[in-house]
Specification:
By secondary structure, the protein is α+β, with helices and mostly antiparallel strands. The chain has helices spanning about 10-50, 105-110, 135-145, 190-195, 225-240, and strands spanning about 60-65, 65-70, 85, 90-95, 120-125, 145-150, 155-160, 170-175, 180-190, 200-205, 210-215. The termini are far apart.
């Protein structure tokens, strides 16, 4: 009598059943893998398209010294800083004149694809000097610069830094303000500013021993008064403690 189990009509269904289940498990695993790849692709694709930005408007509370800065996460420039806790500085960016953070509708502005640049870059950090940029004009900048006959819209005058000042390729711009120190900003000269998104810089004192340094496009110089007042008001509104 034959002993070949492959021909045994009783054992064959058992083998077919095991094979069918193995095939099922393989296809189930492939289906789960496909779903995982699809989901990961969506997240990766979104991350790539955001290019480091976020449209998350939830607030992060960042502590610097005795100050708490409550800033929407889409206004915080770097991903690693979009968290609650203590920090040595906080970097922000926002559109002018809206002074808002990143949104999908503002994507071209933040990716610098909307024509003239209109993004402001701001940093909050512990105060290192007893005077802000305006206060440093008389004791420092006036000694390091030379008068020129060049003026700019908005009542601004231009002074050139001396060769020994250390401020290479920069100029000082200032405007008189009755009853207070002059408005003062440092800018890259016209040749150097051509490839820069925000070639002008100014710092002012805010909060409790904080310094706000903000950089802005050169074409906004003519709007210096509105820009300075708006930046001070915006950052002051983000401060939840301090003076």
């Amino acid at each position: 009598m034959a002993t070949d189990t492959a021909a045994d009509p009783i054992s064959r269904p058992l083998l077919d059943s095991r094979f069918a289940w193995r095939v099922f498990y393989v296809f189930a695993a492939l289906a789960l893998l496909s779903v995982a790849i699809s989901v990961a692709g969506r997240f990766a694709g979104r991350s790539i398209s955001m290019a480091g930005h976020t449209d998350d408007t939830s607030v992060a509370e960042v502590v610097i010294g005795n100050n708490v800065i409550a800033a929407p996460r889409n206004m915080i420039r770097f991903e690693t800083a979009r968290r609650n806790g203590v920090a040595s500085r906080l970097d922000l960016y926002m559109r002018w004149p809206q002074l808002d953070g990143y949104t999908d509708a503002a994507r071209d502005d933040f990716n610098h694809a909307a024509g003239e640049p209109n993004i402001l870059f701001a940093s909050l950090s512990p105060r290192m000097m007893s005077r802000d940029m305006s206060g440093r004009y008389e004791p420092i900048y006036a000694q390091l610069t030379e008068t020129t006959d060049k003026t700019l819209p908005g009542g601004l005058r231009v002074r050139n830094f001396s060769v020994k000042s250390g401020y290479l390729n920069e100029v000082l711009v200032l405007a008189e303000r009755p009853g207070e120190p002059p408005y003062v900003a440092r800018c890259l000269d016209e040749a150097s500013a051509a490839g820069s998104l925000a070639p002008c810089e100014r710092d002012i004192h805010v909060g409790d021993d904080l310094s706000l340094t903000y950089r802005f496009p050169r074409q906004l110089l003519s709007d210096w008064k509105a820009l300075d007042e708006a930046m001070l008001a915006k950052v002051t509104a983000l401060l939840k403690t301090g003076n």
